[in-house]
Amino acid sequence: MAFQKGLFLIVLFLASFKLSAQELTLETTKDTSSVGQLAVYDAKQAVLGVKHAFTRPFHWKKKDFATLGAIGVGLFALSTIDDEGSAFLIRQEPDVPNVFMEAGTRFGSPQVYFIANAGLYGFGLLTKNEKIRKTSVLIISSSFTTGLIQSFSKTAFGRARPGNGYKSTEFRFWSNEPGFHSFPSGHTVLSMTMAHSIAKQFDNIWSKVTVYTLGSVAPISRLFAGAHWFTDVALGAIISIAVVDSVDKFLFNTKAYDYPVKKKNRISWKLNFSGNKIGVVGVF
Fold first, then answer.
1. Which among 35, 34, 16, 36 is positioned nearest to 26, based on CA atoms?
2. Peptide bond preceding 184: is omega within 30 degrees of 0, i.e. cis?
3. What does the CA dihedral 183, 187, 189, 195 come to, rounded to 10 degrees?
4. Is the pTM above the cut of 0.85?
């Protein structure tokens, strides 16, 4: 419990630092709406954000399907090193600091994740700070969407976890066994959804790098723990980035909150292939 409280305070501090770095104030400004009215408004935007994310595939164009195909090819290529790569990392796990493994497990857990979100949103709501509220709505709506996607996918694919002694190609579709809920990584989905949502609020490159580094702790720790394959983590990160970007664009286009007129130094994420290498590249 003490660790969870400490983690929550760290997340809240990072959010507060972000806001001060961008010269935002914690004043109530001229907003005369009551806390209740703001909460209802934010809840509506969160629901609309979730709806937008789930319905976007019906509006995809040729380039979007091309991107989906490239992701599929990339995951297939990455899957060729799933077994060997996982076995190697599992052997290194005894040498990994316990604090790193514990932090990864805790931060990627739903309990800590949602407590942190609730604390951040509550702070923004009580102070009537639109920037914090907007960031929280982005996190909440995105995490709800990605959470449903990954929960359904885990059961539907029924992929075996590395630590069970099975190969990465072992599937038991629609399995209820926890040992066959590997694809995609839930810890990765939650941690990267929050990290990407918060990082998008920064203009400073190094601040973004710091947030993404913290967000990568959970995915990496799960690989060492033998809970997921490389492709589980990769798909979890891709889902998170795609959903957050979709919801963020929706909130921006609908002018639901006070976004800057022009966002500078935003990261454009692309799947990159070169020779025998594959990766997700962020262009600043």
1. 16
2. yes
3. -160
4. no
Residue 274 DSSP SS3: strand
Contacts 24+ apart (CB under 8 A), 25-31: 25/129, 26/127, 26/129, 27/127, 27/129, 28/127, 28/128, 29/128, 29/130, 31/128, 31/130
Buried b / exposed e along 179-203 (16+ C-beta atoms within 10 A): bbbbbbbbbbbbbbbbbbbbbbbbe
pLDDT in tens, the chain (284 residues): 444 444 444 444 444 444 444 434 444 444 678 899 999 999 999 999 999 999 999 999 999 999 999 999 999 999 999 999 999 999 999 999 999 998 888 877 788 888 888 899 999 999 998 989 999 999 999 999 999 999 999 999 999 999 788 999 999 999 889 899 999 999 999 999 999 999 998 888 999 999 999 999 999 999 999 999 999 999 999 999 999 999 999 999 999 997 665 444 455 555 565 555 555 566 55
Give 71-79's long-range contacts (Cβ < 8 A, gap of 24+): 71/238, 71/271, 74/234, 74/271, 74/273, 74/278, 75/231, 75/234, 75/235, 77/273, 77/278, 78/230, 78/231, 78/234, 78/278, 79/168, 79/229, 79/230, 79/231
